[in-house]
Amino acid sequence: MDARFDYYGTATGARFGRYVGSAGKAVADSGLPAATQELVKIRASQINGCGFCLDMHIKDALHAGEDALRLHLVAAWREATVFTDAERAALALAEEATRMADTPGAVSDEVWAAAARHYDDDQLAALVSLVALINTYNRMNVTTRQPAGDYHPGQFD
């Protein structure tokens, strides 16, 4: 598959990408566990069908030492026994916040309460920001049909 055009090669796309990347640094530097961050990015990218982001975040997670089995089971996290209760709460929040248009009221009180039991206010802010961030990247990459498969860990550092 070829990209529709070189989005990141345009002045506006490159500038916007840098700004979004700067927002990502606030999340990356937060107290939200790095493994949870990658799981959330992977799950939202699965929902949104973003191969480019899946390629990146799966490879980054593996490079950081994440277990391959856990990555294979992200799409079936409800049935898998390899995730902590905190990770499950983060994945549930990520799903509901990603699928806002599908559910009246978007993120349910039950899902929010589960996340709030496991994360402090700063971590919750990071989680909400992360979901917004990965959904932004997914929309940029899916719309422009960015191809997957060629990413190397650390490529955009």
UniProtKB/TrEMBL annotation:
<dbReference type="InterPro" id="IPR029032">
    <property type="entry name" value="AhpD-like"/>
</dbReference>
<dbReference type="GO" id="GO:0051920">
    <property type="term" value="F:peroxiredoxin activity"/>
</dbReference>
<protein>
    <submittedName>
        <fullName>Alkylhydroperoxidase AhpD family core domain-containing protein</fullName>
    </submittedName>
</protein>
<dbReference type="InterPro" id="IPR004675">
    <property type="entry name" value="AhpD_core"/>
</dbReference>
<dbReference type="Pfam" id="PF02627">
    <property type="entry name" value="CMD"/>
</dbReference>
<keyword id="KW-0560">Oxidoreductase</keyword>
<feature type="domain" description="Carboxymuconolactone decarboxylase-like">
    <location>
        <begin position="22"/>
        <end position="96"/>
    </location>
</feature>
<keyword id="KW-0575">Peroxidase</keyword>
<dbReference type="InterPro" id="IPR003779">
    <property type="entry name" value="CMD-like"/>
</dbReference>
